[in-house]
Amino acid sequence: MKRRLALGLLACLSACTLGPDYKPPAVPPSATGGFVSAANPAVSADPLPDGWWKLYQDPRLDALILQAFAANDDIRVAEANLAASRALFEGARALQLPQTTASAGAVYGRDVTVDTVLELTDREPQDTWLFDATFDMAYEVDLFGQVRREVEAARDNAQSVDAVLDGLRVTIAAEVARAYGSVCALGEERAVAERSLAITADQLRIVQASEDAGASTDFDVARSKTLVAQVQASIPPLDGARRAAVFELSALLGKTPTEAPFNVESCVTPPRLAAPLPVGDGAALLRRRPDIRAADRKLATALAEIGVAKADLFPKVSLTGFYGGAATQFNLLGSNSGLTWGLGPAISWTFPNIAGPLAKLAQTRASARGALASFDQTVLTALKETEQALTTYEAELAHHAALADAAADASHALALAQAQFTAGQISNLDLLTSEQTQVTTAAAVASSDAALIQDQIALFKALGGGWQAELR
User: pTM of the prediction?
Assistant: First the structure.
């Protein structure tokens, strides 16, 4: 009866785990519904696909992002950090097993123990070989769950590092798409500038011919030349910005500037979506965003560390043992005459001075409160960034539509002005004004195209997709 009682008590103690158990932190119900700013025909409530960049149906963009995932140096750093954290987790798990040490040795000389044995057997002490071999074992009886909490903390920390890596993949995918989109959009802006340059150059020739006929003045020609020069001057900055975007792309791909993917400069049209941009809802966002998952795992780590610190207030019990032998001849190591062994418990306790463990416990509890606050703020930040991206995208869509209408009207007005100027019905100033309006609105539409692709990518990044397992 006493034996069963003792075994039951030992089982209860072994099952005791101090500290709070992890529970998923609550989020406001309003955070899980549809987005406030999603009432826009250009977006839909459909789930965000894993590889959102594939929605652009641009094989070159797909290939660039996969290259970045494989070669980006920041990702390599994060992968190394993940490997290190997983190794720490495996090390923590190993603490649940008995710790063992095997040792063996051989020395030549005099040993007081051997001399004593020789004297007791009426033999003279002498120099001799002494061989020994020992196997030691120690096992911590995890009475208060400290080792289990250490394993939980290491596991949760590894999961938070994994989430950080996923978040970096989200960022890298977005930055590659942003750089590629910039190259293409700047190519479009340059093409628009070249078309505007051709138009203004043609008009300059018309005005010069009119001057030769006596219908225009040197002043009219000078104004037309000024417009041509202004359009010409807008091209070099576009070329510089485009080449800078290529070098940005090169760094994201883990390449030197000489290895930059200059072939992307053939792209002169920004990637465009063939369907409304899928944004899902708040619940899917909270599940998908790696930074929220990282904050959640950091909270779980902090809670487990409370249990580790709390267990330091209680005794630690270990079972230790050893088995081995010693002999003056190697072949006698296993004989009974030289056998040594032992088995027994050991207890240690930081008591009565427990000020240090209490301070550590207070520190872990404060860290857990901070981790919970950080989680709450991360959720709010994710929702804020998504709503801001949706709002910015919607505003730019409206801006783009108005600019497109203005550009169409400006092109029509220029065609009319050209015909009327040729017929002598309007002045050179009227024609020049129409040219300036057409050039300005065409450039504005191209600039808005660039803003749209950047706004789309910012929205995709805020939604937190792109890290999923199929890409690993």
Answer: 0.86
